[in-house]
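QA checklist item 7 of 12: single-chain prediction sanity check.
[x] sequence parsed
[x] length recorded as 164
[x] structure emitted
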Amino acid sequence: MSKFSLILLTALLGCLVSGGAAGKIRVDSSEIRVVKDIHVFASQHPGLRIQALEKEIVPGKARAGSQTVRYNLGARIPSDRLVAQTADAFEYPQAQDVSLQLTYPEQGAGAIVSYVELLCTQDSSEGTAYVVAGGIGLRFISIVLEASNTRNFSYQVQYYGQTN
């Protein structure tokens, strides 16, 4: 069981239970099932919407032995601005699969999201990023980020939006 599967399933079940409403996700942990194939799970839940972010390998940006991957969603628009950003770095004693959930805003309602850019530096370019709740045009977005077989993992995410 990967950590990504557990995080993704928790987010997905939370969206189903709450109808996708931000701040109202409630999940009974006794009902958690491990998702081994996200595509099969999505086909079994027709109302569920999972959206992959666009992925691009950024040449020459990372230190030797690492890869930088850029994920993005949406587009910058003239009236948007940077409304939030966050970053973190992790180092593990041995290579492992890493996953985490990034949510904007952390609580309450934020700006209307227009664009998200996520830079991830890791030992390989293997990984994915999915929107599991909210999205572009809404005041909430939750993204699951995953990197495979890495000892070093860091990310920076920037959220752009309109505050009106």
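[x] summary fact logged: The first helix runs from residue 3 to 18.
[ ] second reviewer sign-off
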